[in-house]
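Fold it.
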Amino acid sequence: MNNKPTYVSREGLEKLRAEHDEMIAVKRPEIAARISEAKEHGDLSENAEYEEAKNEQAFVEGRIAELEHKIKSAVLIDEEHSLEHVSMGSTVEVETGDDVARFTIVGSTEAKPGEGRISNESPVGGALLGRRVGEHVVVRTPAGDAVYTVRSIT
């Protein structure tokens, strides 16, 4: 796993912790019980239930490790960020051509582009960080360059 910080809001960190607790307290024991039950059916080499449970166990253990890494490397997004420039947690209104869009800059863990929550690691999110109202930002995309003008920061 990488050593990059996981930028996350307080709410996002709580969600990560809740999912981790669910995996440890509920999912892991459920899978262990399924594996134990499947073992009782005899020959494991031809036991589809056992194979499926082992595959799910591998997925759950991988997810637990991923969640633990994200929680350990969590850096909380400052809820009292500057309105002078775009930073993590900022909501930015931008103009591109005749369109206006609003983005909230979040860490990749909480990014939901369809809801306007874009990652600081995305081309647009990364390009907007540090910008001020009135600045023009050129974002290189596979479809070509897009020019954004920062209208407001909240």
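The helical segments are 10-39, 48-72, 123-128.
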